[in-house]
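User: Run a structure prediction on this.
Assistant: Running it now.
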Amino acid sequence: MTPWLNYFLEANLCLCFLLLLYRLFLWRQTAFTSQRCILLGATLVSIVIPLWHTAAPGTDLSVEQVMPTAWLDVITVGPQNTPSAAADGWWYMRWFYGAGITFFAIRLLFRLWQLARLARRHRATDSYHGIPVAVLPAPHCTFSFFGRIFLGSEGTLPGARTWVLRHEQVHVRQYHSLDILWIYILQAVFWVNPVLVIYKRLLTELHEFEADARSAADSEVREYCSLLAKVALASADVPIAHSFSHSFILKRINMIKQHKTGLSTARVAMLTFCATAFCYFIVSSEQVAAQQEPARDVFAGVSPDADASFRATRDVYTSAPQDAVLEVVDEMPEYYQNGMQGLLTFLKDNIKYPTDERKRHVEGTVFIRFVVEKDGSVSAANVQKGVSKGLDDEALRVAKLTRWTPGKAGGKIVRTRMVLPIQYKLGS
């Protein structure tokens, strides 16, 4: 697991859990404006909270005890002493995820382009309370987008024009288009999360309920409901915009007839408490990147000396926090010349496949744990899991020769513990 994937998982977890809370406490309520604000707030909190981590006193919710040290990629040394880095397991996922973002971003831009082309073809010829109105020919449906109303076939119904314009005016005045555009952007970024489809549907319904309620507030409700019943149950021509015609007409009619009430204090209090507790859990859990192998397998057979070294380092951390050896930092150390590629070049020039082990066809992975000091030097290097004395000594020798760009935490240079896996592998 990488930091970007960790953020992605936490953000999607927040989106799912906060939607569940909405369903539990605010389902079928009639405080449409408040519900809309809460849904939008849930999406904003979901993308911000995973960026904020803090250490809560007495709370240890991380997986640091399972995998306490950051690992470098496995470096393979062959019989020709030519090191190579193991393929990044998340490389394919990053490309796949990036391709999805690109696809949905292009889809959004294409729909905006469709809307812009429609606006150019049909200029505003009228206005309603200062809002430009463009008349569309059949079979286009009525919709609005930001500061313009596009009047379609619904406006030709007897006595319908005024109420249709009043309905779309609410969408414009309440900036409902901004909500939908925001959800489309989130869908492009978190496209693998199906709950965003639910967010979009709920927001669209709330927009229609709010527009219906405000439109019929000073009018005859029965007459307005009769208008809705006459409107064709067709989808909008422009999916990103608001359409007067939707397939949930019956639900809209029922909502218009319901008595409008505000959100109860108890519901809001319970929702706030549960959301706050969950967000506290997220920000208190500094997730550590998962590594190439399970920790139990890697550290099963740790030498007593290495364990003593680990305990000594831990004691240093306790007694002198300013010189603590950190396991996870904001910026992990990198090889001081050209990063991983530079490390491969260094190992190519310095590491050797011991002759005795090559003759005996000894293979395996040696795990070297060390501390990158504030000046980039290596200290406390030891073999955490070895293969043979020859392979272990060679890997340890070379690891001690490396130099690094030190890690940073909170903008400050810190001591960081690392693990360098070196795999010795002979050809078949």
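Residues 17 and 278 are 8 Å apart (CA to CA).
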